[in-house]
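Chain entry —
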Amino acid sequence: MTPQDGQTWGPIIGIGIAVIAMTLRARSGKAKAMNFITLWIVPLMLLTMLAVLTYASHLQPLEYLWVAVGLAAGSALGWQRGRMMPIHVDPETGKPMVKTSVAALAFILGLMAVRVLLRGFFEGHAADWHINPMLVSDIFLAFAVGLLGMSRIEMFIRARRLIAEHKAVA
């Protein structure tokens, strides 16, 4: 077994485990209370991590533009993923509740599969195209940060609106 085998099979095994865990969670059908603090702190932490790691990559000034494009693309898809998560306000407690969506699960799993395929392709051709391999890695990292961060931000905004509507009716 070569290190390249581990780099190929590692993400596939990880995706398989994620599929099982996410499917079991989605099938339970139970909504869980949303934690407002993590909905805005996690995107802030992810963005800070992205900035530090990208700075440590010593990219050229123009390469940061590609990282920004990856962040923007991830953010756009993250907003859509956040919209797929069903949120409601518990009538008894007034707390926002979120339920794992099968559509959101399929969406994120599809993106993970595309990422695995594209990463191997881009990193394999980076030398041919005279692209810094760290740039490819940073673009994928920025995409993931945008995806995860923006989905939480969208859910935070929607949950606040639902709480305000709930209080206005009550």
